[in-house]
Design a protein that fits this description.
- The complex is a heterodimer.
- In chain A, about 35% of the residues lie in helices and about 20% in strands.
- By secondary structure, chain A is an alpha+beta fold.
- The longest helix of chain A has 23 residues, at about 10-30.
- Chain B folds into two domains: about 10-185 and about 320-420, no CATH class; about 195-285.
- Chain B is globular, with a radius of gyration of 23 Å.
- In chain B, strand 2 and strand 3 (about 115) form a beta hairpin.
- In chain B, strands 1-2-3 form a three-stranded antiparallel β-sheet, with helices on one face.
- Classes of the chains: A alpha+beta, B mainly alpha.
- At the A-B interface, helix 1, helix 2, helix 3 and strand 9 of A face helix 7, helix 12, helix 14 and helix 15 of B.
Chain lengths: ~625, ~425
């Protein structure tokens, strides 16, 4: 072989060398650890969430209360945006450059969170809830904004603004919610309070997916033809609330200018008919772009419009509690309907004196309810806890406490709302701490008339009325009657099982007789009653160390086969008869005689127009 | 001249293996182009406009092939210098008449199609070089001969550099490899490799901030040790000293050029390839997307027409310079290495054919073909997998484009025709 032809080996060597080196490199890329395939898929597919409509929520008669509206968001691939026509974006969205930067930063944070969540792609919400004008302009110009696309989702509109605390509002899912439930993505709207929150999983429906091909400029290039990547959203099922639209609106009108709550329950089912707080807020301001701004303003408002006092506010029940005391005393065998006690303008025991208003002499049980005699119940209370049967005041009190707890007091009633207060029924231990170890019936005598350590939520007061109406039992109150296609044994266990008090039904008659006298001449709420409706009621005045007494009233009607139980609390309203009673009675009339003008227009007018400072 | 092309009795069969491999590559190329430019959502297999165009180019190649096969070799020989002159002329003309495509003025535009004369310059140069070295009495020796040889391929290279088509210009460096077979001393190539190594070391030190004194220290240290052991042989120790001094000087020059003369974007590009910089969104985007495409193929590939990286445009130039990504993505490691094997097989076959030539003309032509193809293959694929800088040259027979396909077809079949009539 001559010298030249020997050199051909070098050429073969070079070719083999390149083949080997390149094959090794190819192996390291194609067979290595880096998930290039996923990266390729993430590049080419955009999994667009199809947001379902949230459930429509109807009132008990089928009237629409909340519905979904379509809204459009501008979403983006915040990490892919390289050449952004900020001028165009600014002019369409009518925002300035720093805002664009800020929004982009936010979108990046959302995208990061989404990636952490193993989401399919790294797109994220950029600008929520476009106005019609913005939407139109963007749809025309979206091709000039590579890396952006329009996404539609649903928001809320309220057909009635009367039930914000019951229905609740939506908000953007925060980190804790996302961590809790990977269904949620940053930017998603979820129920934050009310029914919207409690039934979030049912109401939100099921998201759908539309997967599209996208090219390097993140421009859509058609839908992926694979059912695995494309399925429609499923709207949330219809939710039938137990609330009564008319009653709700009417109650809001009556409570106008006053601080307080109205809660009404259908005794036979535990369904909440009315659930009103004042101050409240207009839920239609808590939607769309204004949501966050409104929310901040509402949080700062010292009227506390977001405060759900019906389940979170606790008050001494005052004289309304006498009904419960009488029942327990009868159950304990220390009181009979015929038992009479004298009054004399107050109850005196050593240095203690519980005042009473002037009324005619010795009263039986029925009369004591009608008149709301404090002395009578001081005596009844002492008879219960000083019962020789127990031999010890603390054992006697423990028996009382047990009965009270059977009314659902001192614990959550488990209404379908979050954050319900337990109220307070003092335990022996609590009284020991408060009064020292050696307290006597006289020490805690104020409990007899619903003062002292006893605290109830308006809902609990209403539930007592429902128990009285049912003569001894109740269903846990709830705001939702039915959700289409929703079957849940836990829910049924909560709301479909009767809860019995420890009171024998036979003892209710005399108390209810007394209650039926309350709105009649000689009763504490005389003059507030409604013709043709036999209202059984009890007024109350809760002492308020911070100001004027709270006006309380609980009632049910009609006396036989009751349809509605109600509790009204007006803060700083003074006597129960002044504000709470007329409001409750008008509500009862409204509910039992729907569509009929009130028989008490003057009373209605006074209530509607009065403002309590 | 040793052979007589007029003597048709000496004609043998044309090399079937080369033609078979050529056909396989062209089909792979067509299928890949068709896939890379297909619609992602197509219901039925349909050809994209670019695939149809490529089909037309292939049709043109067939015409070229038959023209060559039925033409007399003496014609080829006769027109070699003329062809070379025309190629040079066209490459100069394109500077004035051409249209600019991505910064390079290397295209003649005829309506919808473009012709890139630099592609044809390669085959013309190879033929001219072959003819020159094949001229009776001329060998690769003596300053004048060497100078003419160099001029033959450095002239078109320079013109193409002026066209600002760096990639195509660099291809002409592959003729140095051809000259090695014709007697270019090996140490020149080794020196070039050594200098390249030094340059890379210096660039790494510049880019990473490692002091360049380590380099000087090593050169001095190793040089001194070698001189110490070779101290008895004055010639060797002088040579080593010379090498060390030249190396140190070169090392210094590279440092200066790199930090003072090169532009930032050029430095970025070099650093990116050397793996000194990772920039997934800017310059590195192309490389990263290319790697994603190939990596997504995994072992067996994502399937024909299923590669999203390429057809969605994440890979730049998906049907031209980065066509290998489609092969890698859709046919996986198995397909990509098989492809490499086929291509390398063709290269080796050409070397074998070149070596069996009885004439210098035939041998130089064959080696030129092998070296130019080898250069294209290693630079193009090396670029897609991140082994060499992003230099825009096509993958022969595979990449979309008439100029490249026609020029390489012309090149290959001219050689095969020459081989066919060898003695």
């Amino acid at each position: 072989m001559e010298k030249g032809s020997k050199r051909q080996i070098v050429y073969f060597g070079l070719i083999v060398f390149v083949f080997i080196v390149y094959s090794i490199k190819l192996a390291s890329i194609q067979l290595g650890e880096v998930p290039y395939k996923n990266m390729a898929i993430n590049n080419a597919l955009n999994k667009i969430t199809l947001y379902p409509s949230r459930s429509n929520i109807f009132d008990r008669k089928g009237k629409l209360m909340v519905y979904s509206t379509q809204m459009y968001d501008l979403s983006s691939f915040p990490y892919e945006i390289k050449k952004l026509d900020t001028g165009l974006l600014c002019s369409i969205l009518e925002i300035d450059l720093p805002t664009v930067r800020h929004l982009l930063l936010d979108a990046r944070i959302r995208a990061k969170k989404r990636q952490k969540n193993n989401a399919f792609n790294n797109s994220a919400l950029f600008y929520a809830n476009l106005s019609n004008k913005q939407f139109t302009l963007l749809r025309e110009n979206i091709y000039r904004l590579p890396g952006f696309y329009i996404e539609s989702r649903t928001d809320r509109q309220f057909a009635t603004i009367s039930a914000p605390h019951a229905l609740g509002y939506l908000g953007e899912a925060d980190e804790s919610l996302i961590a809790l439930d990977d269904y949620n993505q940053p930017g998603d709207l979820v129920g934050i309070t009310g029914i919207e929150r409690y039934y979030e999983k049912q109401i939100r429906g099921i998201k759908g997916v539309k997967t599209v091909w996208q090219d390097r400029t993140y421009t859509e290039r058609g839908v992926v033809k694979d059912t695995q990547f494309n399925y429609p959203s499923t709207a949330g099922p219809d939710v039938i609330s137990s609330l009564d639209f008319e009653l709700q609106e009417y109650g809001r009108l009556l409570l106008n200018g006053k601080k307080g709550s109205i809660v009404a329950i259908e005794p036979s089912t535990g369904e909440v008919l009315a659930f009103i707080n004042n101050p409240d807020y207009d839920p239609n301001t808590m939607v769309g772009r204004e949501r966050a701004k409104t929310f901040k303003a509402l949080l700062r408002d010292d009227q506390k419009p977001l405060y759900n006092r019906a389940v979170k506010g606790v008050y001494p029940p005052g004289s309304t509690f006498k009904t419960v005391m009488a029942l327990i005393a009868m159950q304990e065998g220390v009181l009979s309907p015929e038992t009479t006690h004298g009054c004399g303008g107050g109850y005196r025991l050593g240095s203690i004196r519980v005042g009473c208003h002037a009324h005619g002499g010795p009263l039986d049980l029925r009369g004591s309810i009608r008149i709301s005699c404090n002395s009578y119940y001081c005596q009844v209370f002492r008879d219960i806890i000083d019962n020789p049967k127990y031999g010890d005041v603390k054992l006697g009190y423990a028996a009382l406490e047990k009965h009270l707890r059977s009314f659902g007091l001192g614990s959550q009633l488990n209404i379908d709302l979050l954050g319900e207060s337990r109220g307070n029924i003092p335990s022996v231990a609590q009284l020991n701490r408060r009064h020292g170890d050696r307290w006597k019936s006289s020490t805690v005598i104020s409990l007899s008339i619903g003062q002292g350590e006893i605290l109830l939520t308006p809902l609990q007061i209403c539930n007592v009325a429902a128990i009285l109406a049912n003569r001894g039992w109740y269903y846990a109150p709830h705001l939702v009657k039915k959700i289409d296609g929703f079957k849940d044994t836990a829910w049924d266990r909560k709301y479909k099982i009767k809860k019995f008090t420890t009171i024998n039904p036979i003892y209710f008659a005399s108390v209810i007789d007394g209650m039926s006298d309350v709105t009649k001449p000689g009763g504490t709420a005389n003059g507030t009653g409604i013709n043709d409706i036999e209202i059984c009621a009890k007024t109350g005045t809760a002492q308020n160390p911070h100001g004027k007494d709270h006006s309380i009233y609980m009632a049910f009607a009609p006396k036989d086969n009751p349809k509605i139980a109600i509790a009204v609390l007006v803060e700083n309203g003074g006597f129960g008869a002044t504000w709470a009673a007329p409001i409750a009675n008008l509500m009862i009339e409204k509910y039992l005689k729907p569509g009929v003008e009130t028989s008490k227009p003057a009373m209605e007018e006074r209530i509607k127009t009065s403002v309590i400072k | 001249m040793k052979y007589s092309p007029l003597n048709s009795n000496t004609q043998e069969k044309i090399d079937g293996l080369s033609i078979f491999l050529f056909i396989v590559l062209v089909i792979i190329g067509f299928l890949s182009i068709s896939s890379a430019t297909s619609d992602v959502n197509q219901e039925f297999y349909s050809l994209s406009p670019i695939a149809v165009k490529q089909l037309i180019w292939i049709g043109g190649s067939v015409v070229i092939i038959f023209t060559i096969l039925y033409s007399n070799v003496v014609v080829i020989d006769y027109f070699t210098y003329g062809f070379y002159a025309v190629a040079i002329g066209l490459n100069v003309a394109v500077l004035f008449l051409g249209r600019e495509v991505s910064g390079a003025k290397s295209w003649f535009g005829f309506g919808g199609i473009g012709i890139q004369p630099s592609e044809f310059a390669k085959v013309a140069t190879a033929m001219a070089l072959a003819k020159y070295l094949g001229t009776y009495g001329i060998r690769f020796q003596g300053a004048k001969n060497i100078a003419i040889c160099l001029l033959i391929f450095l002239l078109p290279m320079a013109i193409i550099l002026v066209q600002n088509d760096t990639g195509s210009a660099l291809v002409f460096l592959s003729f140095f490899l051809v000259l090695y077979r014709e007697g270019l001393p090996g140490f020149i190539l080794i020196s070039a490799a050594w200098l390249m190594f030094l340059a890379i070391c210096r660039i790494i030190s510049e880019a990473t901030g490692i002091s360049s004194y380590y380099g000087y220290g090593l050169l001095l240290g190793i040089g001194s040790i070698m001189v110490f052991f070779a101290r008895k042989d004055r010639g060797v120790s002088t040579l080593i000293t010379f090498i060390a001094v030249v190396s140190a000087a070169f090392y210094t020059i590279v440092g200066t050029v790199y930090s003072s003369i090169l532009q930032q974007y050029q430095r970025d590009r070099i650093e990116l390839v050397l793996g000194l910089k990772s920039d997934d969104r800017g310059l590195g985007f192309n490389l990263k997307q290319s790697k994603i495409a190939i990596g997504a193929g995994e072992l067996w590939g994502r399937g024909y027409l299923k590669g999203t990286q390429t057809k969605m445009g994440f890979v730049p130039e998906q049907h031209t310079d980065f066509i290998f990504d489609t092969i890698g993505e859709e046919w996986g490691f198995v397909g990509a290495t098989t492809f490499l094997l086929i291509f390398c097989g063709l290269l080796m076959r050409i070397v074998i054919l070149a070596e069996r030539q009885s004439t210098t003309f035939g041998r130089v032509l064959g080696y030129s073909l092998a070296c130019v193809l080898f250069f294209h293959l290693s630079i193009n694929i090396g670029m897609t997998i991140g082994l060499v800088p992003t230099i825009g040259i096509p993958l022969p027979f595979i990449s979309f484009g008439g100029s490249s396909l026609w020029a390489f077809t012309l090149f290959l079949f001219t050689f095969l025709r020459v081989d066919q009539v060898r003695k």
